[in-house]
Specification:
- Strand 10, helix 11 and strand 11 form a beta-alpha-beta unit.
- By secondary structure, the protein is an alpha/beta fold.
- The longest helix is centred in the middle third of the chain and has 22 residues.
- The protein has 15 helices and 12 strands.
- The chain starts with 6 loop residues before the first strand and ends in a 7-residue tail after the last helix.
- The chain folds into 3 domains: 117 residues, Gyrase A, domain 2, CATH 3.30.1360.120; 130 residues, tRNA modification GTPase MnmE domain 2 (Four Helix Bundle (Hemerythrin (Met), subunit A)); 159 residues, Rossmann fold.
- The strands form 2 sheets. It has a 6-stranded mixed β-sheet with strand order 3-4-5-2-1-6, covered by helices on one side. Strands 8-9-7-10-11-12 form a 6-stranded mixed β-sheet, sandwiched between helices.
- It is 44% helix and 18% strand.
- It binds guanosine-5'-triphosphate (GTP) and magnesium ion (MG).
- The site of magnesium ion (MG) has 6 residues, from helix 9.
């Protein structure tokens, strides 16, 4: 990232035409910016309507200016906001003029939030929560992002970290007196404390990845032999003709995906090429994409044509490729069913809509399971999970260690557990993490 002492600016609203656009300026020179347009910098915390003019005295715009003096701003620095009219010429002229001012430069992606973090305005969980608020497409995602901002993970992590540090410190105090035997009561109390921490953290990890799924969405893949009615099912669920349906086997080649909102959980539903042997290069590629999409899925819907003699073999052959939980849809029951379907089969006829409502209920219930387990929805990213797993690893290793013979090794395990917890909130070695996190931000954030 370029120099952290530069004053930075960026359009905070999307480019294009709008009623109002906001340009944000942060840094030591922010308060001088209004003067460059022959306007006055308002009092801190006050809006003021000002006419902004260019070097020749021509009016660029009449805009509301807001000044927030350091440290009472989102970045912790002096911040000026220009709420101007959202025309292309207005914003481009203002941004062009800003680029010509000494000591000012365009912010890089995520730089405002980066300064917010560096100036102690928020921790890493706050930064991630902010990104999630902006990215939220469904109400459930927004609710989760706010609960994250408010400490759903920060609070327990802080508590666990303090408890772990306390245990390590107790041990180190004992190590300072090597000649004395560690009292049994101390050993018991350390073991008890660590056991309790392990139980709580394991419980938190055992959440069926609810938070990550709400944030990232759930992938549902439709898999099956050619002509079984997969594309018909996708269109029925999406309520529009998203995929081509025809009686010709091998109609679908590429993946066709539609986005759905199932009770606030974003769902990507993917239709795939029918699976069959001995086909041309294009269809073979389609089939390998189908199998890859099924492998990655959280839920796979296997659709077979129940009127065909070999549908049970088709089903058996596909279960191994179905990622996540799978369910079986035996379609075309209007033509009769060959053999006895297994108990888990959902009998359906998309020709006359029979069985569709029951199927949809089942699909929603499975996806909503994710939605209803709200209490445990506090891990929203893989990095949280990895850090908690590392914590657990350290605590368990500490517990297994020999407290009497090698207390310093045990203390070291507890220290590493505490460090893993510190990485979640950003108290411990964050530089490498920051680059990963801020790379997902856009300019102006
Ligand atoms: N009789 C009957 N026909 C159906 C039913 N569902 C779909 N079809 C028909 O079966 C044919 C194949 O349907 P598709 O949805 O294209 O099948 P697909 O599984 O996507 O096929 P591929 O893309 O070739 O793998 C079409 O003519 C559909 O109208 C059903 O329940 N009963
Ligand atoms: Mg198809």
């Amino acid at each position: 990232m370029a120099s952290e002492t530069d004053t930075i600016y960026a359009l905070a609203t999307p480019p294009g035409k709008s009623a109002i656009a906001v340009i944000r300026i942060s840094g030591d020179r922010a308060a001088n910016v209004p003067g460059a347009f022959d306007a006055k910098c308002p009092e801190p915390g006050r809006f003021s309507l000002q006419t902004l003019v260019d070097g020749t005295g021509a009016v660029i715009d009449q805009a509301l200016l807001l000044f927030m003096a350091a440290p009472h701003s989102s970045t912790g620095e002096d911040v000026v906001e220009i709420h101007c009219h959202g025309g292309v010429a207005v914003t481009q002229t203002l941004l062009g003029s800003l680029s010509g001012l000494a000591g000012l430069r365009l912010a890089v992606a995520g730089e405002f939030t980066h300064r917010m973090f560096h100036n102690g305005k928020t921790d890493l969980l706050g930064v991630e929560g902010l990104a999630d608020i902006i990215e939220a497409d469904t109400g459930r995602q927004l609710e989760q992002a706010w609960s994250q901002m408010r400490g759903a993970l920060r609070d327990p992590v802080t508590r666990w970290r303090q408890a772990t540090i306390k245990i390590a410190a107790e041990l180190e105090a004992i190590i300072d007196f090597p000649d004395e035997e560690i009292p049994a009561s101390v050993v018991a109390s350390i073991d008890e404390g660590v056991d309790a921490l392990i139980a709580e953290i394991s419980d938190c990890l055992d959440d069926n990845r609810v938070g990550e799924r709400v944030r990232d969405g759930v992938q549902v893949t439709i898999l099956g032999p050619v002509n079984a009615g997969k594309s018909t099912l996708l269109n029925r669920i999406a309520n529009r003709p998203a995929a081509i349906v025809s009686g010709e086997a091998g109609t679908t080649r590429d993946l066709v995906s539609v986005s759905l909102d199932v009770g606030g959980v974003p769902v990507t539903l993917i239709d795939t090429a029918g699976i069959r042997q001995n086909v041309g290069a294009v269809e073979t590629e389609g089939i390998s994409r189908a199998l890859a999409a099924a492998g990655e899925a959280d839920h796979t819907i296997i659709v077979v044509d129940g009127s065909r003699d070999d549908w049970q073999q088709d089903y058996a052959a596909l279960t191994g490729s179905a990622g996540g939980e799978h369910f079986l849809v035996v379609n075309k029951t209007d033509r009769g069913i060959t053999g006895t379907p297994p108990d888990n089969a959902l009998l359906m006829s998309l020709a006359d809509d029979r069985g569709f409502d029951g199927f949809l209920d089942q699909l929603s219930t499975r996806i909503m399971q994710v939605n209803s387990a709200q209490n445990s929805a506090i891990i929203t990213r893989a990095r949280h999970r990895q850090a908690l797993e590392a914590t657990l690893h350290g605590l368990e290793a500490g517990l297994r260690g020999n407290l009497k013979q090698a207390p310093e090794l045990v203390a070291e395990e507890f220290r590493s557990a505490a460090a893993a917890l510190g990485r979640i909130t950003g108290e411990i070695d964050t530089e490498d993490l920051l680059d990963v996190i801020f790379s997902s931000f856009c300019i102006g954030k």
